[in-house]
C-alpha cells in the first residue's frame, strides 16, 4: 500500500537563503530522476510496470465484481477483501500510471501541487492498508479460533465500523501531523520514480529532528503495532489449527496462513526497513526497489493470495461466466 508512511513534510517551501538566491521564487516543480540515467533499464521498467498495473486492475476489479455478484460472498471476510481490492486500485492508480509515462520521458517533471497531492494520497492510502490488513487478520483469527461465536462477534455493523475506523484513523495518523509541520526544501530534483516521502525529505535544508520524531512515532502506530498484532493473530490461528483433527484441514489452513504471512512480511518488512531505520541525506537505489516491492508487487499479489485461490471465489467466477460446477 510506495510513498505513504507518516512523516511531516507535505507543505513544501524553499528555504529563505535559496529564495534570496532565486529572486524570492519558491519551488514550483520537481524533476523525477527515476532510471533516466539508464535508458535500457527504463524501458524494461516500463514493460514491467504496465504488465503489473494491468494485472492489479484486472485481479482487484474481478474481486469487486464477484463479491457484488454472488450473495455467498457477502460475508465479513469478503467485505474486508473488497475494501482491500478497492484500496489497492486507488493506491496503485495514484502512482503507477505516472511512473509508466515517466519511463517514456527523458526528463520527467511534476508540478509542486501535483507532487504534494500525490504524496498526500499515497500517504493516506498506505496507512489505510496497514490498518486494514490488521483488521483482516483479526477477522480470520475470530473465524478460526472462535467459529461458533463468529457470526455474532463479526456482525455487519461491527465490520462496517472496523473498516470505517481504518479509513478515518488513517487520516489522523498521516495527513494531520504532516500538514501541521511544514518543511523547507533546497532542491527540486527528486531521486525517485515519483513523489516519495523519504526522497523529498532528503531535499530538506531545515532541521529534520521534529519531522523524524513524528515519523517514528506515527510509524510505530501504523506499521509496527499492526505488524505485531498480525503476527500475534496468526500465532493464535496456528494454535487453533494444530488442534484440528483433520490432517487435510490442517494442511489447507497452513497453506493459507503461510501465503498470507508471506505477503504481510513482504509489505510490512520493506516498509519498516525504510521508514523506521536511520536515514541519511542521500537517496539510495535500495529505496527505489523497496518502494516498488510494497507499492507494486504487494498489490499485485493480494488478489491471488487472499481471494482468487479460494474455492468460493472460483465457484462465483464459474457462476458469473455461466459455467456449470465441476464435480
TrEMBL record:
Subcellular location: Cell membrane
Residue stretches making up the G-protein coupled receptors family 1 profile domain: 59-306
PROSITE patterns per UniProt: G_PROTEIN_RECEP_F1_1 (PS00237), G_PROTEIN_RECEP_F1_2 (PS50262)
Any one Gene Ontology BP term: detection of chemical stimulus involved in sensory perception of smell
Keywords, sorted A to Z: Cell membrane, G-protein coupled receptor, Membrane, Olfaction, Receptor, Sensory transduction, Transducer, Transmembrane, Transmembrane helix
GO molecular function: G protein-coupled receptor activity; olfactory receptor activity
Membrane topology per record: Multi-pass membrane protein
Any single Pfam family the record assigns to this protein: 7tm_4
Cellular component terms per the entry's GO annotation: plasma membrane
Principal cellular location given in the protein's record: membrane
Transmembrane portions of the chain: 43-66, 78-96, 116-138, 158-180, 213-232, 253-277, 289-308
PANTHER family listed in its UniProt record: OLFACTORY RECEPTOR
Family statement: Belongs to the G-protein coupled receptor 1 family.
Protein name (record): Olfactory receptor
Gene (name only): LOC100013449
Amino acid at each position: 500500500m510506495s510513498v505513504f508512511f507518516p512523516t511531516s513534510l507535505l507543505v513544501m517551501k524553499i528555504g529563505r537563503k535559496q529564495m534570496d538566491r532565486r529572486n524570492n521564487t519558491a519551488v514550483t516543480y520537481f524533476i523525477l530522476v527515476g532510471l533516466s540515467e539508464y535508458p535500457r533499464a527504463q524501458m524494461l521498467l516500463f514493460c514491467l510496470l504496465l504488465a503489473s498495473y494491468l494485472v492489479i486492475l484486472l485481479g482487484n476489479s474481478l474481486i469487486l465484481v464477484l463479491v457484488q455478484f454472488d450473495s455467498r460472498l457477502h460475508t465479513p471476510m469478503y467485505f474486508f477483501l473488497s475494501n482491500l481490492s478497492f484500496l489497492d486500485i486507488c493506491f496503485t492508480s495514484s502512482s503507477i500510471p505516472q511512473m509508466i509515462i515517466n519511463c517514456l520521458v527523458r526528463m520527467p517533471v511534476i508540478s509542486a501541487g501535483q507532487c504534494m497531492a500525490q504524496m498526500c494520497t499515497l500517504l493516506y492510502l498506505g496507512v489505510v492498508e496497514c490498518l486494514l490488513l490488521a483488521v483482516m487478520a483479526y477477522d480470520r483469527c475470530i473465524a478460526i479460533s472462535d467459529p461458533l461465536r463468529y457470526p455474532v462477534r463479526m456482525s455487519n455493523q461491527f465490520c462496517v465500523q472496523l473498516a470505517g475506523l481504518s479509513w478515518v484513523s488513517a487520516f489522523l495518523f498521516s495527513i494531520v501531523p504532516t500538514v501541521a509541520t511544514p518543511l523547507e526544501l533546497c532542491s527540486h530534483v527528486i531521486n525517485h520514480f515519483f513523489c516519495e516521502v523519504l526522497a523529498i525529505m532528503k531535499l530538506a535544508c531545515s532541521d529534520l529532528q521534529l519531522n523524524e520524531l513524528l515519523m517514528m512515532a506515527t510509524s510505530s502506530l501504523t506499521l509496527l503495532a499492526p505488524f505485531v498484532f498480525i503476527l500475534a493473530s496468526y500465532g493464535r490461528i496456528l494454535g487453533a489449527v494444530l488442534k484440528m483433527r483433520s490432517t487435510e484441514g490442517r494442511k489447507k489452513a497452513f497453506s493459507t496462513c503461510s501465503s498470507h504471512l508471506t505477503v504481510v512480511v513482504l509489505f510490512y518488512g520493506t516498509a519498516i526497513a525504510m521508514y523506521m531505520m536511520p536515514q541519511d541525506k542521500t537517496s539510495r537505489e535500495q529505496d527505489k526497489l523497496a518502494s516498488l516491492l510494497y507499492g507494486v508487487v504487494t498489490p499485485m499479489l493480494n488478489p491471488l493470495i487472499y481471494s482468487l485461490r479460494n474455492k468460493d471465489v472460483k465457484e462465483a467466477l464459474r457462476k458469473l461466466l455461466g459455467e456449470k460446477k465441476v464435480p
